[in-house]
Write a structure and sequence with these properties.
138 residues; alpha/beta; seven-stranded mixed beta sheet; 4 helices; 27% helix
């Protein structure tokens, strides 16, 4: 659901595991310029404290826009546990789960194996500044 095409929400992915968060929502902006204006931060990437959140917002919003513009139907989620294991973005389509983790600095990436063990056949991919063009189909 979106509100005047400014923001959108992702619901949590949960299939009744006891440790999964089920009621939380994440909010993103379709236009990160509006996000930056609201927090009054137009600094270059190398001066920003919020680079991770900005990168995540940009990647998710651009992927959703691409899918919508090309008639690709996917259910979109994020996944998080009470133990703070997380996948930033999940696409569910054609009976498959594809998870994506967005990191500006790829040194911080660790796959949540509990997700892979629980949801057999699912995948998780790191998207960073070196491989994002393929993810966005540019």
């Amino acid at each position: 659901m979106n509100f005047s095409f400014i923001i959108f929400r992702l619901k949590p992915y949960s299939r009744n595991l006891r440790n999964e968060l089920k009621k939380l929502r994440k909010i993103y902006f379709f236009d990160t310029g509006i996000r930056n204006a609201l927090i009054n931060n137009f600094n270059p990437f190398n001066l920003r404290q919020d680079i991770g959140g900005l990168w995540e917002n940009f990647m998710i919003s651009e992927r959703i826009k691409f899918n919508n513009n090309h008639g690709v139907t996917k259910n979109n989620y994020f996944w998080r546990t009470h133990e703070k294991q997380e996948i930033d973005y999940i696409e569910e389509g054609q009976g498959k789960l594809k998870g994506f983790e967005f990191k500006w600095n790829q040194k911080t990436f660790r796959k949540p194996h509990i997700f892979l063990d629980t949801y057999h056949g699912s995948t998780i991919e790191l998207i960073d500044k070196d491989n994002f063009i393929k993810f966005l189909n540019l």
